[in-house]
User: Fold these one by one.
Assistant:
Number 1:
Amino acid sequence: MIVLIYLSAIVMIISALYAVYAKDLLVSVVALGINSLIVSVLFFLMHAPDVAITEAAIGAGLSTAIFVFAIKHTERKE
Amino acid sequence: MKNTQGMVNAFFAFLLVVILGIFFFNAINQPLGNGLVLNKDNPDLSKRVSIHYILKNVHNAEDYLAQHKSSYFRNRDKVKSSNLEFGKTKNAESGSANEVTSIVVNYRGFDTLGEVTVLFISILGLGMLLHENKKKYWAKPSLIVRTGANFLFPFIVLFGVYVFVHGHLTPGGGFPGGTIIASAALLLILGLKDFKNKLTMTKIIESLAGLTFAGLGLVGLFTNGSFLTNFLPSGTMGLLVSSGITALIYIAVGIKVAAELSSGIMEMNGGGEE
C-alpha cells in the first residue's frame, strides 16, 4: 500500500513537471489529465471514494476537454 | 432625463448602504453575554450539538449521553459510535447508507442548494459571453471517433444514471453522475457533426430539475415546519427505495448538473442553437 502511494506520488510529480515545461500545450494538457487521474487514485487509496469519483470525472474528463477547447481557440505552440 | 434617472439610482443605492450600515452597527453594539463556556477537564457533552451528528440518531442520543456522561473522550476506543446495521435498521433519522450523502443532502441540504445555484449562475455567465460565437473549430471526425462515440454513448449515460440514482447507497451522487453524463455529451459533440442542433432541451430540463429541488424543500416547509425537512419515511437502510427525499434530491441534482454542463460544453465548443 505504502509502495503504491509513493509510486503514484512520484508519477504525479513527474507529470506535473512535464505539464509545466512542455513546449507543446496539448501535451501539457494531457499531462495535467494524468496528474488528476493519479490524484483520484490517491483519494481512493486514502478511503475517500466520493472525492475520487468526482476528481476522475471533472479533473481528468471535463477540465481536460475545456483546456483543449481553449487551445483550439488560441495557439498550440508556446 | 438620464441625469434624473442616475440621481434616483444613486439615492436608492445610498439608502441601501444606510440600511445595511444600521444592521451592521446594530449587531456590533449588542451586548455579548457570557455564552456557553465548556469546561475542558470535564466536558459536558450533552451541551454540544456535534455529539448528535457523531451519533447520527438524535432520538437515541439522550439515552447514550445519560449512560456515558463525560467519559466519551477517555473511553473513545471502547464506545461504538452507533448501532446502525446495513439492510436491517429501520426508520433511522437519515436512512442513507452513504454517510457523505446524509451530510451533504440531508443535514446540509441548504448548502447544496446554494452550490447548485452557484453552478447555474456560472453557466449563465458562460452562455451570455459565448453565445455569439458560432465558428466551427473542429475538423471532420475520423471513423474511429464516430464509431466509438456511437457505441459508447449509451453505456456512459447508463453509468452516470446509476451513479446518481444510487447516490444514497454507494459513493458518488448527483455531481459526479451529472459530470459523467456531460462527458458522454462531449463525446457526441466531438463525434457527430450536427449534434449541437439536437441538444435543444437542456435549459428546460435544467430549470425543471432546479424547481424540483426547491419544491421538495417547500413541501417540507409546509408539512414539517422547516425548509428541506426529510418528510418522507426513511425506510430500511440500504434498499434502493429508502432515505426519503435524499434520493429524490440527488436525482434532481444529477439531471440538473448533466444538463448544465452539457450546455456549457456546447457553448464552449462554439455557438448554441442557431
Number 2:
Amino acid sequence: MSDAVIKPPHGSPSAPLVTKQRTLAADVWRQFRQHRGGVVGAIVFLTIVFLVIFGPYLHGINPAALDVRSRNLGISFAHPMGTDNLGRDMFAQVLAGGRTSLSVGITAMMLSLLLGTTIGVVAGYFKRLDGPLMRLTDLFLALPLLPLLLVIIMLFRDVLRARFGPETGIFLLIVFVIGITSWMQTARIVRGAVLSVKEQEFVLAAKSIGTRERRIVTRHILPNVLSPIMVSATLGIATAIITESALSFLGLGFPSDFPTWGRLLYDGVNFMTINPSRVIWPGLAISLTVLSINYVGDGLRDALDPRIRGR
Amino acid sequence: MKKFTTFLTGTAAVLALGAASAQAERGSDGHLNILYWQAVSILNPFLSGGTKDVEGASMVIEPLAKYDEAGNMVPALVDEIPTVENGGVSEDLKSITWKITEGLLWSDGTPFTANDVAFTAEYCMHPDGGCQQIAKFTDVESVEVVDDLTVKVNFSVPKPFPYGPFVGAESPIIQKAQFENCTGPRAPECTEQNFGPHGTGAFRVTEFRANDVVSFEANPHFRDAAKPAFATATLKGGGDAASAARSILETGEFDYAWNLQVEPEILNQMAAAGRGVVVSSFGTSVERLELNWTDPSPDKGAIRSTIEAGPHPFLSDPAVRKALSISIDRELLVEAGYGASGQATCNILPAPELYASTAVNWCLEYDVEEANRLLDEAGWERGGDGIRAKDGVRLSILYQTSTNSVRQATQALVKDMWQQIGIETELRNIDAAVFFGGDPASPDTFQKFYADVEMYTNNFPGTDPERYMAGWLCSDIPSPANGWLGANMPRFCSEEYDALVGQMAETAELEARGELAKKMNDILSNEGALIPLIHRGDVSAHSVTLEGVRMNSWDSELWNVADWTRAQ
C-alpha cells in the first residue's frame, strides 16, 4: 500500500517508525473505538449476552418453579426482580427469556439479512434480474402476513414438533417464518444503494482492468453498501423480537410456560399496577438490547464506510 | 353457595331502594353505557350461538318467559307459566299452551299476536335455516295458533320439561311481519332485519355497527309505561376482560361490563377504587379438562382424534385417568386464578341443587402419593428423566386451551402438579376466536381436539340438564362425517350412559330426573371422560350509580334491564 512510503507527520507519537501491515479489520476496529456510542453500546450488549448465557449458573432458581404462596412479591434478596402471580422468579425468567429472545432475534435477523442482501445486490447489479427479483419482492410485500403465518404454522407445526420436539421445532419454525417475511425492506434498500455505487468511477476502473464480477461485488460494492445493511440488521433484531412476542401472544409461538421477553411483557401488562417490575424488567431488557445494537450498528457503519474512516 | 346467598340478600336490598326510583317516568335517567368486551356481531340469536349476541339481542327481543336469578321461570309476555296443575301443560306431557298477555305491542306499534310466536318456531325449525338454537325446539312437532293470544306447542314425545321453546334469552320471539321473507336460506341475507329486529323489550335499536357498537333508545311501546328508566343506551364492544373491568371499577366510563375473567388480585385492586361493584353468581359453568379417548397422533392423518384412529395410547388406561385427576390440587387453582368466583368441584353438573351429585367427591382429595401408587401398580415405570413410560409409550401430554391469562396460569400449575407424578406436559394456547370458532378447516378447534387434554368452560342455558347431559352420547362424537359438530369432545362412549340418557327422556318426575342426572354425572367423573376442576361463577361489574342489577346465570345478564335505574 502507498501509505507505507508517506512519512508520518511530526509530533505524532503513535506513528510507528516501521509500519506494520494494516488490515481492514484492524482499521475498522481502530475507527470503531473512537465512536463513543458504539463502544458503550457494545459493552451493554455484551453484558446482556454474558448475563443471559452465564446468569442462570449464578442465579440458580428454576424459572419454571411455581410457588403460589409467595406470589406477586417485590424485590428481595432471594428474588432480585420479585415474583409473578404464580410465584415464579422474575429474574430467572428474564434470563431464560433473554436466551430465547436473543437467539430468535439474531438468527432471524441473519436469515432475513442474508436473503435481503443477496436479492438486493443481485437485483441492483445484474440488470436482467432486476425486474423479476423486484417483482418477487413486491409480491412478498403484498402478502398478508398474518394469514400466511397461520398457514405456515398450521402446515408445519406438527411435523417439526414430531421431529425436533416442541421447543426446537417451534424455534426453527419461528426463525424461518420471521426470516422469510422480513427481508423485503433490506432488499429494496440494498438494491438502491448498489444502483448508485455501481455507476461510480472506481467500479468502472475495476471493470476496465478486467476484475471479475464476483470480485467487484464482494470487494467494491458490498463494503460500500454495508451501512444500510448494518442499519437494517439492527432494526431487524428489534422487529424479530417483537414479532416473536406477537406470535406467542396469538398462541402460535412458543408454549405459554416458555418465557421470552415479549411474552413476559404481555403477561405482565395486567399486573402493572400491582407489581410494576413485571413489565419494567422485560421492557428494559428489550429496549436496552435494541438500543445498544442500534449504537453498535451506528459505530460499525461509520467504521466500515471507507469515506468516513480515516477522517 | 355462601357467596351466592349473600349476593342475593344484597340485591334484595338494592331492589328495595330501586323500587322507589322505579316509579319515575320512562326515560328520566338519561343514558346507559354497557360494555361487552366481545363485540356484538348480530342481533338475531337464531343465527348466532355467541353469548354476546344472545345477550345483546335480549335488550330488544324477549321470550315468553325468562329465568330469574334463582333459576325460577318468570312470565314475560304471558300472564302465567303453564303447568300441569293450571292446565297449561297437557296430562300426557305432549303439549303446552301459552296465553299471551293482552295489549302487547311491538316496538313499531303493531300488536303482538300468537302468529308471531308460531312464525318464530317456523323460522328456527326451517330445515335450510341453519338455526343455532334448534336444540330448543327438539321434538317439537307443530306450533298451533289457537286464537290471537293463545299458542299451543305440540311435541312428538312426552316432554317432562316442555319449556324449551320460547323460554330464556336463546329463544326469543321475532316479528312475523318483519322476518316473513327471511326464512330458510335467505335468513343470513336479511341484514337490516338481523341488525335491527323489532322487539317487545325495553329498548329498540337506533344504530347497529357490527362488531363495534349498538345504540338503543327506550321502546315507546314497552308494556310498562314507567320503564325503562333510561332514555337511551349504548352497547359497546372491544377490548379485553381486564380493560373492561378497569373502565367500570377504576375510570367509571361505563355502567356495566360483562364476563370479567381476570385474576382475583387484579379485580380486588380495581374494586378498591370504589367506583364500581363486582357481582358474581353461580350457574352451571364448570372449567374442566376433557381427556381424549382416541389417538390424536399426527401420523394418523385424516382420521386422527376419531374413533377410527383407535384408543389413546395411554389415556385409555383408567389408572392414568384417575391419577391425573387426584394429582390436581383444585383449591390451589381456585386460589391462584379465581378467588371468590370459583369453587373446587368434581361434578360436571354442579347445579341446580336437585341435580348436583355428592358421590364423586373423592377427586377433591389432593393425593400425590395415591396417584403415584396407581401409576406404579399399572406398570408405568419412571425413566431416567423422571417421566413414566410403559412398552415404549411415554406419559407425555399435549394440553391445549384458549388464550387467557387465567387459563395459562392454570395450565402452568397443572403442568407442575403432573410433573410430580412423572407425567410430562406440553402446553399450547390458541386464540379464543379460533379455538371456539368451530371452523372445520382449522386444526385448532376444540371439536377437532388434536391434543391429549383440553381445558375450557361449558354450561347450559336454563335449568334443565337433559340436553346437556345428552352431549356425551356415542352418537354425539365429533368426526369428519358430521362436520366435526357434536358435543362429545372426549369421544366417550358407553352403553350404560346412553341407556340413562334414553331413560331420562322418558322420565317426568323431577326427583327421578335428578337421580338419573346424578348417575350420569358420576359415570363421567368416575370413568374419567373429563376431569371437572372448578365450578365457575359468572363475574360482572356495575357502576355504583347503577341500581337494579340482578346478576343472572340462568338467562341473559341483561334480562331485567328494564328495571335498571340511576341512583339519585
Number 3:
Amino acid sequence: MMKLRFSWLGVITFFILMFTIAPFLVIVPSSFTSENFVSFPPEGLSLKWYTGLLDMPGLTSAVIFSLQLAIVTAILSTVIGTLAGLCIAKYNFKGKQTINTLLLSPLALPALIIGIALLVYFTYLGLAGSFTGLLLAHILITIPYVIRFVLTGMATFDDNLEKAAAIMGAKPIRIFWDVTFPLIRPAVISGTVFSFLISFDNVTISLFLVSAENMTLPLLIFNYIQQNLSPLISAVSTVVILISLIPILIIEKIYGLDRLFGLNSNSH
Amino acid sequence: MQYDVELKNIKKQFNKQDVVKGFNLQVKKGEFISFLGPSGCGKTTTLNMLAGFLDPSEGELFIKGKRMNNIPPYKRELGMVFQTYSLFPHMTVFENVAYGLKLRKKPKAEIESRVRKVLELVQLPHLHDRFPNQLSGGQRQRIAIARALVTEPSILLLDEPLSNLDAKLRVELRDELKRLHKQLGVTTIFVTHDQEEALSLSDRIVVMSHGNIEQIGTPNEIYNQPKSEFVHTFIGQTNQFEGNIKSINGSQIQILSKDGVVFNTVVSDSRFQVGESVNLFIRPESIFLGKEHNNSLDTACIQGKIKLVTFLGSITEYHVAIGDHDLVVRTQQPQKEWIEGADVLCCWNIENQLLIRREM
C-alpha cells in the first residue's frame, strides 16, 4: 500500500517537474536550429540566430536598459523595503497595520490596474515613458517582496541580541551593522534577487510606461513576436534565461540557496 | 554614603496601567540583590529601567551616584545576562566575548588576554572558535556570563538567567554564580521567580507583587519573618488561621479561630480592636511541639492532637488537628512520644508570626 502511494507520488512529481521545465526544453534547443522557423525538435544545428542577435534592431540598448532598470530597482527596493520591514517588525505604533497592508497591496492588485493607474498618474506628472517612471513603478511592485522577506527574517529574531549589544556599549547604528543586519542578510539578499528578477522580466506594468527611447527587453521581445516568430526569439529567450540565472548562481555560490530561502536554519 | 544603585520612588506606567508603583531601593557596593515575584509583578520592568531599555515614568535612578534617567544603555557601563542566552549566533565564542572590548577600542593583545582570563573564570577556556549553536545550554549561559563580565561592569544585571536550563544545570550554574560573585564582588541585581534561587544567592531579596515592594530583607528575614500575607504565601509554605479578636489585654491578644479554638498570642503594637477579623500566618518550620507552655511572653501556643506523621528523611512532618483545622509542623528533631493521636502543644515565637487584619 505504502509502496503504491509512493510510486504515485513519484509519477505526479515527475509530471509537475516536467511541466515546470518544459518551456526551457523547447526554447533552448530550438534556438540552435538552422531553419528559419521555430521548430521542435530543431532541425540542423547552427549558431546563426545567436550571431543574428547583434543585428536585431534595438536589442543591445534594450538589454542594457533593462539591466540598468533592474539593478537600480533592486538596490532602491532593498534599501526602502528593508527599512520598512525592520520598522514594522520592531516597533509598535499607531497605524502600523495600515502601513503594512498598504505596502503589501501591490501584491494583491492586478498588475494591469496598477499599470493603467500609473500611466494616468505619470502622464499627469510628466513621467510617462521615462526611466524615472519605470523605476518608480518597478520599485512599487518589488518592495512587497523585500518587506515579506525581511519580516520572515525578523520573525525568529531575538530582540535581546540588540539589548545585549547595547548594554555592552554599542550605539544603535553599530548594533544594526554588527548584529541586526548580519542576521537578516540572507532575507535582504533574497529580496534583492527577487526584485532584480521581477523587474528584469516584467511585462504587464512596463507595457504602459515604456516609450520608443526607453524600451525594456521583455517588451521588445513582446513587440517582436507579434510580427514574426523566428528562432531569433528563442535565442533572445535563452540569453534572458542565462542573465536571470546569474544572480541565482552567485548566491548559490556564496550562501547556498537552501539557506537563503530558509530551508536550512543554521545561520552562519 | 554613596550607593552603587539607588532607586528613588521609581514608577512606570504602560498605557496608563501602573506596572511599577513607587520603587525605593539602595544597593551597597558588592551586594547581591534579587528581585523576586511572580510574572507581572514589575521585576523585569524595573530591571529594564536600570539597564536603560525603559525610561521611568517618575522617580530618579542613580548608578554609582550618577543620575541615569534618560542616559542610553550603551553609556551605562553595565553587564547583563538574559534568559534566552542571547549570544550573537554569527560570531564565535571569542568574538562574542571580545565584542564589548572591541567597542572600547582596546588593543588586540589586551582583548585576547582578557577574553582568555574571563573564559577561564567561567571554566570554559577551550571553546574560543565554536559558534553558539554548537554549545549546550549551560555552556551558552556561561559564555554569556563571561561576555557580561569581560568589560568589568559596575553592575551586573541578571534577567532570569537560569530559567531556561534543566533542573540539574540550574543548580550547577546557581552555585557558579555564587562562586563568581564571591570571587569578583561585583554588585549584582538578579531577577527571578524562583524562590530557591533568590534565597540561596542573595544578600538581600526584594519581594514584589503587582508593582509593589512587599518586603526587602535578607533571605533569613524574608523566610522567617515575612511581613505580608503575600510573602508568607508566595515563599515557602505557611499555615493560616482565620479568626476574630476576642479580647485584648495590653500586648496580649486572645483569638477565637473560625473553628472555635481559642488561643493567646502577643503583638508588638496595638493596631487591633476587639471583634476584628484577623488572619494569622505561621510557617511549618517555625512551630515547635511540646508538652507545656514555657510561659514566656514572646511565645504563643495552641493545643492540638497529632493526626498524621510523615517521615521525609531529614525532616518529619506532622499534621496537628486544631478544631477542624490542620496545622502543618516540620521539625528535624522528632520525638518518640509524638505519635498519631497524641495531644501536643504547638508553640511558636511571636517574631515568626504574621497577624493582619482580614480584608472583608
